[in-house]
Structure of RNA helicase:
Amino acid sequence: MPRYQHYGAQTAQGQMPMPPPSRPQSAAQYAGAPVPQMAHYAPHGYAQQALPPQQQAQQPPPPQQQHMMLPPHMRPQSAPHYPQPPLPQQPPHLQHAQQQLGYPTHAAQHYAAYAQQPPAQPQHAQHVPLAASSAQHAAPPLPDQPSARAGAPPKDPRPKTEDVTGTRGNDFEDYFLKRELLMGIFEAGFERPSPIQEESIPIALAGRDILARAKNGTGKTAAFVIPVLERVDPAKAAIQIVLLVPTRELALQTSQVCKDLGKHLGLEIMVSTGGTSLKDDILRLYNTVHILVATPGRLLDLANKGVAVLNQVVAVVMDEADKLLSPDFQALIEGLFEYLPPTRQILCYSATFPIKVKDFKDKFMRQPYEINLMEELTLKGVTQYYAFVEERQKVQCLNTLFAKLQINQSIIFCNSVNRVELLAKKITELGYSCFYIHAKMLQSHRNRVFHDFRNGACRNLVSSDLFTRGIDIPSVNVVINFDFPRSAETYLHRIGRSGRFGHLGLAVNLITFDDRFNLYKIEKDLETTIQPIPPSVNPELYAFSG
Ligand SMILES: Nc1ncnc2c1ncn2[C@@H]1O[C@H](COP(=O)(O)OP(=O)(O)OP(=O)(O)O)[C@@H](O)[C@H]1O
């Protein structure tokens, strides 16, 4: 029996009541709440932070009748505005990673010999487990030198799942990386490689093409950034690495990872995306650039103009590769490959790889090494629930979720730009702090929202699918699909914005009658079960009290 048939029968367990398909719903029973007007709604993605107390008092509480439409466990308490816990500090290792650590300059010289060792030997490409052999080839720190780990920040105390802990036990030292690179890795708070990093780093260092699939938030970025940072020759004034990503925000984030991990390497890293001044990019390219992180359209433009010279590129990375090979980008990518030398290494990463990648693989890649760490598709640390609602009940249901859940930070996804703006407005009117972001906003506003949300300036972000892929904000512990996505890929990437690096997270899906087939299909495609939301959600499933 298809699962969607029994949703209506489960109301006793506490989820939203499902109206039988044939029974028309009375407007009085399911009418949406009139939403109070809100003068403090600010455009450009900035909704107000929170109403001043005296204005909060003036806000009419949501009508009682509306609460009664919800099953008892979803009804808000009596107060019109529900206090949420204070915004948390960033985990200690993240705060620390942002601080500049002074290193004695002699350390770099002292280790020059070690740093200049040739990159990984062919046995890496043969996939020899490094743990077994590391004792033979890992260079021990010289007696009078601090270890490259000396600048590591305090340990992140949050529990992690096997998605990132299920490794063979390798250490970063096992890969013969430059000492300066190791220092950057440890200062970023990375202690050991994650499974995808263990699989990918040695193969990439050996120069082989890679097609890699691993779960969201398990460290794919460092899995390609570390080997490409190792491969760049700082003395050579040419673009040596191209990192392609589908969105501008992801480009900014990825370039920041390159800068953080490579901060002792003395490399020039440039971001180039649409929505910024082309002239600035052209002027920047007159100076040395070693690593170029770009969205495909802008880079092709610069290559066509002869400004971005790509004939010295040794490796090109395609993050979210399936998206980059979708019809939206495919022509641009193929255009770009005409400028790249035939010897370039190609590294492709994503959590989702449909069949369409095959054509690209056959046409451009040379016997790629394939990594698939996704026997199981969803993250172990992310608990998934659905609440069955009528369209007009959604805002009230969200209000209840805000009141009941321990949200550190949340991302709330809508299926269109219009709905993002409307929902942000309604959330603000309910008295909660909220930003919004979508692709039709000015880039400068997008950047500000991204920056401020990441820094914890606001608890909730309403987003279109712009933030579905790749965005890494470790404090996000709750994702809400206000609108249920249409495809399993989108669903997987969206819920993967919580539960980063094996931490715990919660995904709540608001499901309407029309969504039920889609819910069933996505559950089937992902071989997962999305449970009805219980009357109270155990905070231990998603909230770290530390
Ligand atoms: N070895 C490591 N040790 C500790 N933290 C790590 C390690 N590798 C990556 N991280 C952290 O894990 C988080 C997720 O990493 P990343 O964004 O690379 O995941 P991803 O697999 O690319 O996710 P997505 O599929 O969503 O793009 C980041 O905050 C990153 O700093």
